[in-house]
Design goal:
By secondary structure, this protein is of the alpha/beta class. It is 40% helix and 16% strand. The protein is built from 9 helices and 8 strands. Bound molecules: pyridoxal-5'-phosphate (PLP).
Length: 245
């Protein structure tokens, strides 16, 4: 199989990666303070998919240690080379890749099917490992996006309750793309409202501290204002992604 990313080279000047990270950290702090939130309650996942290991190392030199990847094979190569980094999986996982996913990541943000949850739990038992997960919700009911329907999320959390190795810490979403900030804001608000309802029903691993992963390069400020605890930012840190070969 051909490589899906180049192991060398930068998509951007290495200095630019550092500067971009600094700009984003400043924006996170300012946005959080503006809406009365503690900036340290927001974690930045630097989305490194299709960018080289050298790019990730540059970000690590600027003290960014948490990354997000979408492709299992590509992630495996990076994780093996970068023991000091922590990786969230944020892509679509086929159930037959559950074994490797259960080994590699500190969190899987995109659990949206019973079969996947079951497969992860089974492999985690064998590995004697526990794993934090988020439930991916298709908050905008976008036909092109994965994720569980909002109204089915509670039932899904009930169904996976007996899987003791996976800990659902919260919800993740990718809203339908819109250039209208107010439309995007409503989707983020809806995810937050859904998470509060589910927390009231006691469906998360810690119902006093529910994680909300929402917001990307173009909308992370809105997401922070609406309660994101995890933002996933790629392009604004690493530049445009190289095309797949
Ligand atoms: C690629 C990706 C991101 C990062 O998107 P940018 O627009 O480059 O910041 C965030 N979340 C998910 C799920 C992604 O696939």
């Amino acid at each position: 199989m051909s490589r899906i990313f180049s192991t060398t080279g930068f998509s951007l000047d290495p200095m630019t990666i550092k500067q971009n990270l600094q700009t984003i950290r400043n924006t996170i702090t300012e946005t959080a303070i503006d809406c009365g939130r503690d900036p340290s309650s927001i974690k930045l996942v630097a989305v490194s998919k299709r960018h080289s290991i050298a790019c990730i190392e540059e970000a690590m030199a600027a003290k960014q240690y948490l990354f997000g990847e979408n492709y299992i094979q590509e992630a495996q190569e990076k994780i093996d080379s970068l023991p000091g980094a922590d990786f969230h999986f944020i892509g679509h996982i086929q159930s037959n890749k559950a074994k490797i996913a259960a080994e590699l990541f500190s969190m899987i943000e995109t659990v949206d099917r019973y079969k996947l949850a079951k497969a992860l739990n089974k492999h985690l038992e064998k590995l004697d490992r526990e794993l934090n997960i988020l439930i991916q919700v298709n908050i905008g009911k976008d036909l092109n996006k994965s994720g569980i329907a909002p109204e089915k999320t509670g039932e899904f959390l009930q169904q996976i309750r007996s899987f003791s190795r996976i800990h659902p810490l919260g919800l993740m979403t990718i809203p339908p793309f819109s250039t209208d900030n107010e439309e995007t804001r409503i989707h983020f608000q809806n995810l937050r409202l859904l998470s509060s309802e589910l927390a009231e029903q006691g469906l998360f691993a810690d119902n006093t501290k529910v994680e909300l992963s929402m917001g990307m390069s173009h909308d992370y400020k809105i997401a922070i204002a609406e309660g994101a605890t995890i933002i996933r930012v790629g392009t604004a840190i690493f530049g445009k992604r190289p095309d797949r070969e």
